[in-house]
């Protein structure tokens, strides 16, 4: 379905417009800069809701270009007669399906809330918000791009602002954390780039005049009919390198999730990053890893995905349990939440590995829910850090007496993270387990993974106790409860967490056609590829 | 009244307390009288429940009313939620709302002056909502949902006085220990869903009777049943997960009465009763053994405890063990009867202990009390009645149910040879009577240990005494049967509560449940063989006599030891020191768990955090260092060797120096360009396509 109005471009590039305005303003107008950023991100939420309103739930997308929605497609780069390469034709190709709509919504909401939470930034305000808005465009772009080249550009676009946002506005070890984040993610990008180029030279697209040109179109890469006979990553080539490419691509995405053992950049980045950036990092950026696997790795390499399912589930399990145990040992509140992200992203991987409707729905839902819940958890840390300038868990105690409303929101967020029924985290975890248990291959892994539910309750409640319960320490007797701005951050997230806990269909219906199509595609493709043989 | 009206009524009962909770949590601080609203909603829920139970038990007594709706539909899978009204659910809801109402009224006086008064009632409302959900559910997933919500409300109420570390510890412990059981239950649900593609009770049960089994084997069904039972082990504080319940006494006493004695802990028993039909013989036997152990071990611990609430807590575990054991041996109806009778008299005992504690200015140690019967006459009499019920003395409700359980266990043993179960059952009867009367004598009879506190003690206000009177009245036989010696004479057992048909394949049942043994009767009506019915009849009178002897000798011994002091208790404790210490230290369960599981997990977490920080991150940082070292090396190479060549061949050196210096910009972007560029070149050199 083509869109008459380029709403996806608008939602993606609106922040760039904001960035230009921000840069044009004089240095002294800090409040105006902040207001404009909040306005722009707020508009983005409105646009996301408009998209949601016009979204047709029955269309699937995934590998079928005609059932994507709000499509914008035109030739963007067109170089012909470039001697031995031939023609280079790159499309500007945007579109969304049930896989990306939840992520678009999530990005809009989380960015808006992060913008509100950035209000207390007072160091080079212009620079911060300009980079913030650029980052926003990069993230949104990743979720709407359907052309691999474009996808990659957005992927890289988000890297640089993030580097500076951590490196300039971060904590004491900000340079170390920023460069670590940057190099690690760049390493992942290089892998993705390699595979992208390999795929480009293995896939043809037929033009209107009948000539065949190489293409970056991801949907073309999902159809084995478009592959060249001898392409390095073509399934038709008996000596292809698809397996190695898959691993490289997977590692590229896995760094972002972050998957054990590539996760150690995350705690450092989180601890040093300012609150709003942690919120974005955990709320949106991590999802790009799992989104990339579902959007790119799965449908382009279905046969290898199926061969490696057990390992994906295994690493999911390691993330769940290892992350939870590491979280338990942390003394820094923020680091603990960072490790809890590692654990919770493990559920996404476990769900993806099920390759059935329940599991994949659970995985996508978990991506959304983890985004909102963890965003809230980082905001919670931020609130107390703003007031006390410490994050040591043992420095606190008894905050419930002093800050009852804050404690109330915290309790909701913590129990959502534990997977309490009635809150959103439960449904996604339950779906992940129901799906993963349904797959014979990974059943044992699933059973072991349920330990994560126990460990999660352990470290979360222990933290809740050490920070909020018990007697109030004398030095915190002057702390104030939440202010208006903080209410504005917590209330929307709490409403979403409770709403999706009681009525998960609101999100599940959105994705169900796409998930079903994806499961079917993965099964059919498997049959096809095994008939082609050769691997 | 039609069936759909009853369902609507049940939905109203379910959501009334939730509405109360929502109002109280948001306005509890601003509006002083939200507690009145909370009491009124529970009162309304009780009246509606009474009406619902009356309608159901008179007009629809043989009907199961089910109503379902689709909650989630994702194409290939749809998930229903639903309500089930059958006799046990309406009796249970009547009990829950009744005890809840009584406790609400009691709390109005008991909690007066607490700074979080409003929030206390809000939490009680949340609890009542969750518990109602468990009772009405017709669905394993929904059961699990409310199961966890009950866990949350229990957590909040145990840790209600969160400023005390012991209270917040206890809340955390309760939640986590329960989660262990819940994981088992969740895995059980996963197996059932995998096999039957639904969560609904009746669909699953009918498919089991149709011969569809998890993993195609009876063992699969046994495992599924036992995993579901794990949930009950946690929630009903059964061995080996019983350790949370005594600690849960840190919560306000009315909470202990409602949640940790009468209703929530009974949810585990209720769950087993719900799924009774799908439990194989093997599963039931293990359940019976767990129940027997849980009846016996805590009873031995209660003997030596001095905290009035701890004694009652261990007694609760022990009585729940009775119920579980009873279900395990197939004496379903008596287990359910005991669930109800126990709810009333145990709630009465806890509320009575609250009255004592308040009178003694928050003293809970019974060795520091004494003589209170003169000061607290109402509390004393009601406490005594409830204790007699707990000890199983005729004319009380407890006699009816306990006697039934012991008879059922004896009959079971006579058919299967598992004599240890009735032996445990009868010794628990002795122990129970002994520790309860030890408690009564030390608290109410013997000379005051603390004269000052005794002088100041006074009877509790009416709002607390009336609940005690109501509950102690409910501990009498008359509500259950007109004949104090025969529970079967009442409508409760003769009309309302019936053992459900067993759905499991015949060869997986207890032998005596096989229809083959039962002979001619039609398959559907057969639950037990005539053999079992005969054994039960045969066991009834002997069991009654033995249990009565046991109870009376327990009471007698308690009087001998503590009232008349014919035996020196301290000397006796000295003589059996190892046994005494074992009992006093609660069989060291907490210590063992602390040293193994808790310390093990924390140790492992520290080890992994170290590993993560030093090894994994060490590799990351190490590779960065190595890279730096390489770049230094190539820098040196550039300077020494390349420059050497430069000196040698001046012309080339200019170009080479230029090229190599470009590699050294230190700009990451440049490196990427180089990487990409070289890859592209390599690709074309090898022309792999």
According to DSSP, the number of beta strands of chain A is 4
Structural class of chain B: mainly alpha
Low-confidence stretches of chain B: 517-526
Radius of gyration of chain A: 23 Å
Distance between the termini of chain A: 36 Å
Mean of residue pLDDT values of chain B? 88
What is the general shape of chain A?
globular
N to C succession of SSEs of chain B: HHEEHHHHHHHHHHHHHHHHHHHHHHHHHH
Q: Fraction of residues of chain A in helices?
A: 55-70%
What's the number of helices of chain A? 21
Instruction: Calculate the mean pLDDT score of chain A and round it.
Output: 90
Descriptive labels:
heterodimer, A: 535 residues, mainly alpha, two-stranded antiparallel ribbon, two-stranded antiparallel sheet, 4 strands, B: 689 residues, 2 strands, globular
Topology:
The complex is a heterodimer of chains A (535) and B (689).
Chain A: H1 7-24, H2 30-54, E1 69-82, E2 86-96, H3 101-117, H4 125-144, H5 148-157, H6 159-169, H7 174-200, E3 204-206, E4 212-214, H8 218-221, H9 242-256, H10 265-272, H11 275-300, H12 302-329, H13 333-354, H14 357-388, H15 399-402, H16 404-418, H17 424-437, H18 443-449, H19 451-468, H20 484-502, H21 505-532
Antiparallel strand pairs in A: 1-2, 3-4
Helix pairs in contact in A: 1-2, 1-4, 2-3, 2-4, 3-4, 3-11, 3-14, 3-20, 4-5, 4-6, 5-7, 6-7, 7-9, 7-10, 9-11, 10-13, 11-13, 11-14, 12-13, 12-18, 12-19, 13-14, 13-17, 14-16, 14-17, 14-20, 14-21, 16-19, 16-20, 17-20
Chain B: H1 3-27, H2 34-59, E1 65-73, E2 78-85, H3 87-110, H4 117-136, H5 140-158, H6 165-196, H7 201-209, H8 218-235, H9 244-247, H10 253-262, H11 266-275, H12 281-302, H13 308-328, H14 332-359, H15 372-375, H16 377-391, H17 397-416, H18 420-445, H19 451-456, H20 462-473, H21 491-496, H22 515-518, H23 530-563, H24 569-575, H25 577-584, H26 589-648, H27 650-663, H28 668-686
Antiparallel strand pairs in B: 1-2
């Amino acid at each position: 379905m083509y869109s008459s109005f380029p709403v996806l471009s608008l939602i993606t590039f609106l922040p760039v417009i904001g960035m230009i305005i921000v840069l044009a303003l004089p240095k002294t107008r800090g409040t105006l800069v902040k207001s404009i950023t909040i306005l722009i991100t707020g508009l983005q939420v409105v646009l996301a809701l408009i998209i949601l309103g016009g979204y047709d739930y029955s269309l699937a997308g995934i590998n079928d270009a005609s059932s994507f929605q709000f499509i914008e497609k035109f030739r963007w780069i067109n170089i012909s007669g470039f001697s031995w390469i031939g023609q280079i034709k790159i499309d500007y190709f945007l579109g969304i399906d049930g896989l990306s709509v939840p992520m678009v919504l999530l990005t809009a909401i989380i960015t808006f809330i992060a913008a509100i939470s950035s209000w207390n930034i007072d160091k080079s305000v212009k620079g911060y918000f300009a980079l913030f808005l650029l980052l926003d465009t990069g993230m949104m772009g990743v979720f709407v791009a359907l052309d691999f080249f474009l996808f990659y550009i957005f992927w890289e676009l988000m890297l640089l602002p993030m580097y500076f946002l951590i490196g300039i506005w971060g904590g004491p070890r900000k340079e170390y954390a920023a460069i670590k984040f940057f190099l690690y993610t760049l390493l992942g990008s290089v892998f993705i780039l390699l595979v992208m180029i390999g795929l480009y030279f293995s896939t043809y697209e037929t033009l209107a005049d009948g000539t065949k040109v190489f293409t970056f179109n991801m949907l073309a890469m999902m159809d084995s009919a478009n592959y060249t006979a001898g392409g390095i990553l073509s399934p038709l080539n008996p000596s292809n390198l698809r397996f190695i490419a898959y691993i490289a691509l997977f590692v590229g995405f896995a760094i972002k999730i972050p998957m054990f053992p590539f996760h150690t950049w995350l705690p450092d980045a989180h601890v040093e990053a300012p609150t709003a950036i942690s919120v974005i990092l955990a709320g949106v950026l991590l999802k790009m890893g799992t989104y990339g696997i579902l959007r790119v790795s799965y449908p382009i390499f279905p046969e290898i995905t199926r061969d490696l399912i057990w390992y994906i589930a295994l690493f999911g399990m390691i993330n769940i349990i290892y992350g939870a145990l590491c979280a338990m040992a942390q003394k820094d509140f923020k680091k603990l939440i960072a490790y809890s992200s590692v654990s919770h992203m493990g559920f996404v991987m476990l769900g993806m590995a099920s390759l059935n409707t329940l599991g994949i729905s659970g995985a996508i839902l978990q991506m959304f829910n983890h985004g909102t819940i963890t965003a809230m958890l980082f905001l919670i840390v931020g609130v107390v850090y703003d007031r006390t300038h410490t994050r040591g868990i043992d420095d606190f105690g008894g905050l419930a007496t002093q800050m009852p409303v804050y404690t109330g929101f915290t309790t909701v967020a913590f129990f959502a993270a534990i997977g309490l029924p009635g809150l959103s985290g439960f449904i996604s975890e339950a779906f992940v387990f129901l799906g993963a248990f349904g797959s014979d291959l990974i059943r044992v892994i699933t059973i072991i993974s349920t330990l994560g539910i126990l460990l999660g309750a352990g470290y979360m409640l222990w933290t809740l106790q050490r920070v909020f319960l018990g007697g109030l320490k004398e030095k915190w007797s002057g702390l104030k409860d939440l202010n208006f701005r903080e209410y504005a951050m917590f209330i929307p997230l709490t409403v979403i967490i409770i709403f999706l806990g009681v009525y998960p269909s609101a999100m599940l219906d959105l994705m169900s056609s796409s998930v079903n199509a994806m499961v079917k595609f993965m099964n059919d493709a498997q049959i096809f590829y095994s008939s082609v043989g050769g691997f | 009244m039609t069936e759909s009206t009853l369902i609507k009524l049940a939905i109203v009962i379910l959501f009334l307390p939730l509405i109360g909770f929502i109002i109280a949590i948001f306005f509890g601080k601003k509006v002083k009288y939200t507690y009145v609203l909370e009491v009124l909603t529970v009162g309304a829920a009780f009246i509606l429940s009474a009406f619902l139970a009356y309608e159901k038990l008179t007009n629809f007594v043989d009907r199961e009313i089910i109503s379902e709706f689709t909650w989630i539909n994702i194409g290939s899978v749809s998930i229903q939620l639903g309500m089930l009204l059958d006799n046990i659910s309406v009796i249970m809801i009547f009990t829950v709302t009744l005890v809840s109402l009584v406790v609400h009224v009691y709390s109005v006086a008991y909690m007066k002056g607490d700074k979080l008064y409003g929030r206390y009632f809000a939490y009680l409302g949340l609890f009542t909502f969750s518990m109602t959900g468990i009772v009405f559910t017709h669905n394993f997933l929904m059961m699990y949902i409310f199961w966890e919500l009950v866990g949350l409300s229990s957590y909040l109420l145990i840790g209600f006085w969160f400023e005390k570390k012991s209270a917040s510890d206890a809340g955390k412990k309760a939640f986590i220990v329960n989660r262990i059981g819940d994981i088992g239950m969740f895995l059980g649900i996963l197996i059932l869903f995998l096999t039957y593609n639904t969560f609904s009770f009746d669909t699953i049960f009918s498919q089991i009777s149709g011969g569809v089994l998890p993993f195609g084997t009876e063992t699969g069904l046994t495992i599924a049943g036992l995993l579901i039972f794990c949930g009950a082990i946690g929630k009903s504080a059964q061995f080996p997960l019983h350790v949370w319940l005594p600690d849960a006494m840190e919560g306000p006493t009315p909470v202990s009465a409602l949640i940790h004695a009468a209703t929530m802990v009974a949810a585990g028993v209720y769950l087993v009763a719900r799924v009774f039909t799908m439990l194989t013989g093997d599963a039931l036997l293990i359940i019976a053994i767990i129940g027997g152990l849980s009846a016996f071990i805590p009873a031995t611990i209660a003997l030596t405890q001095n905290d009035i609430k701890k004694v009652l807590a261990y007694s609760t575990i022990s009585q729940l063990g009775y119920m579980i054991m009873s279900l395990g041996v197939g004496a379903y109806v008596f287990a359910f009867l005991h669930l109800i009778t126990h709810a009333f008299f145990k709630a009465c005992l806890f509320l009575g202990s609250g009255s004592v504690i308040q009178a003694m200015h928050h003293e809970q140690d019974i060795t520091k009390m004494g003589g209170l019967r003169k000061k607290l006459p109402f509390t004393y009499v009601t406490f005594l009645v409830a204790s007699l019920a707990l000890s199983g003395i005729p004319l009380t409700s407890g006699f009816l149910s306990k006697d039934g359980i012991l008879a059922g266990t004896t009959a079971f043993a006579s058919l299967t040879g598992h004599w240890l179960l009735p032996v445990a059952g009868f010794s628990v009867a002795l122990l129970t009577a002994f520790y309860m009367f030890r408690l009564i004598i030390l608290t109410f009879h013997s000379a005051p240990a603390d004269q000052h506190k005794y002088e100041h003690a006074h009877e509790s206000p009416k709002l607390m005494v009336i609940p005690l009177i109501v509950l102690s009245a409910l501990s009498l036989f008359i509500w259950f049967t007109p004949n104090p010696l025969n529970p079967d004479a009442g409508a409760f057992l003769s009309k309302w509560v019936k053992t459900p048909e067993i759905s499991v394949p015949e060869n997986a049942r207890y032998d005596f449940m096989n229809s083959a043994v039962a002979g001619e009767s039609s398959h559907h009506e057969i639950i037990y063989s005539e053999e079992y019915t005969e054994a039960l009849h045969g066991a009834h009178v002997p069991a009654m006599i033995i249990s009565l002897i046991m109870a009376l000798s327990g009471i007698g011994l308690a009087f001998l030891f503590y009232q008349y002091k014919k035996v020196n208790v301290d000397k006796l404790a000295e003589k059996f020191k190892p046994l005494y210490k074992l009992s006093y230290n609660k069989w060291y369960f907490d210590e063992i768990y602390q040293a193994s599981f808790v310390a093990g997990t924390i140790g492992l977490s520290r080890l992994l955090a170290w590993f993560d920080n030093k090894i994994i991150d060490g590799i990351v940082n190490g590779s960065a260092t190595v890279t730096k070292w390489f770049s230094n090396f190539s820098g040196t190479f550039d300077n020494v060797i390349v420059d050497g060549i430069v000196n040698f061949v001046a012309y080339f050196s200019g170009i080479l120096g230029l090229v190599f210096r470009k590699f050294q910009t230190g700009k990451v972007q440049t490196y990427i360009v180089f990487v990409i560029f070289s890859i592209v070149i390599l690709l074309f050199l090898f022309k792999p396509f």
